[in-house]
Design a protein that fits this description.
2 copies of one chain form a homodimer. Chain A contains 9 helices and 12 strands. Chain A is an alpha/beta fold. The two termini of chain A are 18 Å apart.
Chain lengths: 308, 308
């Protein structure tokens, strides 16, 4: 029987699973720390793959989700911020030499988009916009059943569009991107600024805030925290209206830690989106859904990639 | 021999041309006023097609560029601002009933993108962003040799993204879109506002300005007019940097009347783009080109569509 191997490579841990063809029930699953002992990262990854290799049948392909920009055509990790050892790393070639099966790489946000499209909240749709909001904002777009990649595979960076031309510094080095106002650190920073400017709040002033603290305070009714989530939601909604005009998808899937803030983020977001869309045909039948696959999204995307 | 018929339908005139397969030299070309006499628009269009029908051989398909949103899957003109008679008009069906060949529709900006990609400044590229700047801003995107359409064919609206959240009213009814700051009327409006606020300029104050007047004054060295074009160019450059992150194209093609302002628009635009791009890999090998096909762009795009 044919199998596919899916890998989710992170800065802290690496996960692998082996799936029989046409099945979402893996025959083997393994999870190891990315670093440890005296073995190199690549050796550890090879051991992980060996440990989940099927006892019978053969492997059709390996798919891997990688935390950072990759060249999906060459199978090269360009730069993974959490795995600095792997700069311009031709991972597909290394693994193909070792295992003699095709190896496909994708960045984690693109793989999450594929996972949600094939197996999660976007199942059955042909045009999907996925956006993940946590410490950064990542994106992935499916158009006509194909992942948007672009000439070097660097497309789909939906968090890196200018929303405040002279705004705060972004994780990418640029200024005023959506990520700076709607991701976790941006939410925390704005709240902190309001506190320092004398805003009333139950939030502590003795240490730098996190977005999680803001979210918890908002759930308990703190008005400053509620305003902070609403502001982030509004910026997200405006950007999503732009993405409706650009991509005309039938579903928007939203994942990432910040999206767990729930209605206090989602309601202002939806309101802003509907307010800003230029024609109701863009929202006719549109679904706006939360990501469904949770921690498995990278693995499921890597599986979809392996099978593609 | 097989032929293809291309139509460029505008509010003022309709053009048609009949091309032999694998040729860009039409065997027949015709141009008529969109309205006139006692015949309906549809009758006039049918007569136009009859007048360019090949004497020998058969027609493989008809492609038509239409000035407004269309449903390319159903072949329906949703709404053409300059042809209000054709609201929710199933043009493909009408023409297929009449001529018994497949008829494909596309909106004019998308068709211009296809024309420039197949026969113009974007020839040989697989990932193209086309933007046309005149009284409005339209767009079209080719990804992996396919036109971006979306679920209802309404994608690719690159002029309708928010760049000034509380900005001026856009032609689409929304606020603060790129079109409001970088298209002709936005350039004229900003210049007029500066004049009224007392800015020094050679421009007249006795009538509402046009973008063309601003452009001509800029060519002659008027500093306010130069600043107006530079401002529009800067906004365009920022938006194009966003589009590099979103689409990762290998070529950007810029068309439309405003783009004829030349270096005074293009240089600030390129500067802003390079300043705002988050990683040099996005601009490595990137071509930024002016549209090449001029008035023929609609026809050439319709031809590309007919052949697709």
């Amino acid at each position: 029987m044919n199998h596919y191997i899916a890998l989710d490579i992170g800065g802290t841990q690496m996960r692998g699973a082996c799936y029989p063809e046409n099945s979402l029930s893996p025959v083997k699953v393994e999870r190891i720390a990315t670093r440890g002992g005296s073995t190199s990262l690549l050796e550890r990854l090879i051991q992980l793959i060996q440990s989940i290799w099927p006892d019978q049948g053969h492997v059709g392909a390996i798919g891997a989700a990688v935390p950072g920009p990759v060249d999906p055509y060459q199978g090269v990790i360009i730069k993974a911020p959490n795995i600095p050892e792997w700069l311009e790393m031709p991972l597909s070639q290394y693994l193909e030499d070792q295992f003699h099966v095709p190896v496909h790489l994708g960045n984690d946000a693109n793989m999450a988009a594929m996972g949600e499209w094939k197996y999660g909240a976007g199942k059955g749709h042909h045009h999907l916009v996925y956006i993940t909001v946590s410490t950064g904002i990542g994106g992935g777009v499916i158009l006509d059943d194909r992942l948007l990649l672009g000439v070097r595979g660097m497309g789909g960076e939906l968090g890196h569009v200018t929303v405040v031309p002279d705004g705060a510094l972004c994780g990418c080095g640029q200024r005023g991107h959506l990520e700076t106002v709607a991701a976790g650190p941006g939410i925390a920073r704005w709240t902190q600024e309001q506190l320092q400017a004398g805003a009333q709040s139950s939030l502590p002033t003795d240490h730098p805030l996190t977005a999680k603290e803001v979210s918890l305070a908002a759930q308990k009714g703190d008005s400053l925290a509620i305003a902070a989530l609403a502001r982030a939601g509004r910026y997200l909604g405006w950007a999503l209206a732009d993405y409706l005009h650009i991509f005309n998808p039938s579903v928007i899937v939203i994942g990432g830690g910040v999206s767990q803030s729930g209605a206090l983020l989602f309601e202002p977001m939806k309101l802003a989106l509907h307010e800003r869309v230029m024609h109701q045909d863009y929202t006719k039948g549109l679904q706006i859904a939360r990501a469904e696959l949770g921690d498995d999204v990278g693995l499921m995307g890597a599986l979809a990639l392996a099978q593609s």
